[in-house]
Structure formats: C-alpha cells, structure tokens
Write a structure and sequence with these properties.
Elements: H1 11-22, H2 40-58, H3 64-67, H4 80-94, E1 104-107, E2 110-113, H5 114-135, H6 144-156, H7 159-163, H8 182-189
Antiparallel strand pairs: 1-2
Helix pairs in contact: 1-4, 1-5, 2-4, 2-5, 5-6, 6-8
Amino acid sequence: MTDAPGILDLTPATRRMEHILAGIDDAQLSSPTPCSGTSVGVLVDHVLGLSLAFTAAARKAWGPETDSPPELAGTLAPDWRLLIPGLMAGLGEAWKDPAAWAGTTRAGGLDLPAPVAGLVALDELVVHGWDLALATGQDYVCEPYEIAACTAFAESITDEERSREENGLFGPAVPVGDDGSPMDRLIGLTGRDPSWTPPPPPG
C-alpha cells in the first residue's frame, strides 16, 4: 500500500455524497448495487458508519468507531436521513485540519499512517458514491484530483490484499479498455464493472 499524497480536500466528496444519499427513494433501499451482494440500504448504512469512523480517525479519537472492522450488514436507523448533513459535514471538516494528516491513526481496527487513512476515506466516498449513484439512477461526476488520488491508491493494493475474503479492500481488478475514462479505470481497479447497470424490475 502506497503512502498518501499531501492534504486532500474531502469536502467536495462529502457534499456529493450528501446529495446522492438525499436523492435515494425509500423504494430503492432494497435494490442491488455494483458492490456485489450489497443492497442500496446496506451500503447507505455502511457509508454512514464509515463517516463516523473516519471522522474519529481524523480527530485521533480512538474508540468503538475506529476499533471495529467495517461491516456490510447493518440496518438503517429510522432517522438516517436526518443524520446525513451532520455526518457528511463533520467528516469533511475533520480532514481540513492539518493535524488530521499528521502521525498515525486508527480505522477499521488497524493502525495506519494518518495520510493513508485520509486517502482511504476519500476512496470510500468516491467509490461508494459511484455505487449508489449508479444503483439509483443519479448523475455522478468527480473532481479530477479525487480520481487521480484514488486511482494511485487502488493501484497500490497488492493481489494478496485483494484476495482476503473478509478484510480485503477490493476484489480482483476488472480489465478496462484503452477507451475507458479515468473514472472507469478507477472503478475497474476497485473490482467493479464500469459497465454495470441496474437489473430490470421483475415482471
């Protein structure tokens, strides 16, 4: 795994995620996503949980949020929509502090360099934002610096790390043609098919 670049602005990604989450209809929560075997509702719960975890990681506030590995099996709280603005704003603000990028921190039960934790947070926002946007029929456009930083991170993940069933960050990379966009290339590196489309409704 490579070292992260310098301080990155996570605010565009958190604002984009807030917009995507707000655009999800309740009827879509059971729909599939490009994240294999994961419904929209489960992925939304994961995003809300990781926002708490990486906000705590930025503040070096180690505890239950930073000590537990990420899960994709949660149940959305009834008031989840009310939580979105505060969680996303808090995450973006926490990583604006230069101190967040200094030293080491903890996330997902792992101790790691703070710059790497910040980059993982950005990657989670960018990639899961794409997952949710595609699954719910929303437009999705990222900043070039976000795609470049996340691509460099995804390229640094070894085959061994990808093969771990429980703790692997990504699945096996999906080949993308030379005509693929930078976003397509990033998505392929995270083990997703950039050409994924939602299945047609039953009947």
